[in-house]
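[09:14] KT: can someone run the structure on this one? pasting the chain below
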Amino acid sequence: MIPIAWYDPTNGAVSIDKDSPLFTPLGQVLPLYPEREWVGLTQAQFLEATRLAENGNYLVAFVRIQDWLKEQNT
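[09:31] RB: done, structure tokens below
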């Protein structure tokens, strides 16, 4: 994802220059990214995780949920 602006924590300045340097003489400039909306599980994913948990496969269900959410929100 490409930053939409740069923030300098040393002075609170925000620059919208896309070619802003990664470092200034006073410290690091931090990239600011557009806000994204959270994407949750689909109904099918939820039902699969529930089925796994009901069968006692809690760890597998938790790992699947974690993987799905990482995939959908990165």
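[09:33] KT: thanks! The mean pLDDT is 84.
[09:34] RB: yep, looked fine to me
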